[in-house]
Specification:
alpha/beta, 7-stranded parallel sheet, 8 helices, about 15% strand, globular
Length: about 190
């Protein structure tokens, strides 16, 4: 893996353990020579992650819409900055630059970004790993809900299997490096008739 895209909160969250896990993620990326692709901001967990990667001598690639950059939210130690016009362009650019996707603790934007790339995988638009970093059980209820979606017939088991999960970033990264998408029919997760 050359670059991993990380979706995460622009707020720090209530527990200091979130920032500690995110800093560990940044150190792990830098130590392994894997570039970070993320939303380009300096605030919240996003800033903690970017600082940890930069402090370790790693590559920090930010993708930021101009309207957010204008609010002075841009991280000032980016290796590369890609300024885009819209949030839609931001997600497309981050996906283009990345070899895999991780959702760490975050809010609605984190979930929206993660589920868009997960859906793109389901549709066969990419075969890149996507996983939830379940710090402090943050995604336990979401994982249960995903399992319920399978049980209720709205998500195929093969698509659920392609959504990875681990309790720490280093563990999730190991799963992602060895990822082979479960394939149904001729397409990544899609049964063709």
């Amino acid at each position: 893996m050359r670059n991993v895209c990380v979706f995460l909160g622009s707020n720090p969250g209530k527990s200091p353990a979130y920032a500690e896990a995110v800093a560990e993620a940044g150190r792990t990326l830098a130590e392994r020579g894997i570039g970070l692709v993320y939303g380009g901001a300096k605030n919240g967990l996003m800033g903690v992650l970017a600082n940890a990667v930069a402090d370790g001598g790693g590559r920090v690639v930010g993708v930021l819409p101009g309207f957010l950059k204008a609010k002075e939210l841009a991280f000032d130690r980016l290796t590369e900055m890609h300024e885009v016009d819209t949030m839609h362009e931001r997600k497309a650019k981050m996906a283009e630059l990345s070899d895999g996707f991780v959702a760490m603790p975050g809010g609605l934007g984190t979930l929206e970004e993660f589920f868009e790339v997960a859906t793109w995988g389901q549709l066969g638009l990419h075969a890149k790993p996507a996983g939830l970093c379940n710090v402090l059980g943050y995604y336990d209820k979401l994982a249960g809900f995903l399992d319920n979606m399978v049980q209720e017939g709205f998500v195929k088991p093969v698509h659920r299997e392609n959504l990875l999960q681990a309790d720490s970033f280093p563990a999730l990264l190991e799963i992602m490096v060895g990822f082979k998408p479960v394939v149904a029919g001729k397409w990544f997760g899609i049964e063709k008739s």
